[in-house]
Amino acid sequence: MGILSNYFGIGGVWLLVPILIYIFKFPAHLAIATSIFSLCLYSSYGVVSQFFYDKIDWMAILWGAIGIIIGSKLGMKLAQRMGDYYAKCCPFY
Q: Transmembrane segments in this chain: where (predicted)?
């Protein structure tokens, strides 16, 4: 399981969100944002290390950034409409 989760880049985030919501009583939107922030911290180490090896595909980063910006705007609007109840019920954390 650990090898597959590292390969797909999910790490322990699949467990972090339910723990924050049900044990620490975080609102769902705050728990999701916290897990995304922790993912950003973890992945930044890999980016910095690959930068020194000059193995970064800048076009992939550009297209990924465009998709992230569009997806985050749409996701924010959708999350505001749905509320915390539906975010907790969503099986695809």
A: 6-24, 31-52, 58-76
Tokens of 35: 């897990």
pTM: 0.59
CB within 8 A of 42, min separation 6: which ones? Answer: 11
pLDDT of residue 62: 94
Ramachandran bin of 25, using left for φ above 0, alpha for ψ from -120 to 50, beta for the remaining angles: left
Contacts of 39 (CB under 8 A, 6+ apart): 11, 13
Mind listing the pLDDT tens digit for each residue in 1-58?
Answer: 455 555 665 666 677 888 888 899 998 888 888 888 887 887 788 888 888 888 888 9
d(CA 30, CA 13): 14
Question: How many angstroms separate the CA atoms of 74 and 52, rounded?
Answer: 34
Please give the radius of gyration of the chain, using alpha carbons only, rounded to the nearest integer: 15
CA distances from 47 to 37, 40, 58, 69, 83 (A): 15, 10, 12, 19, 33
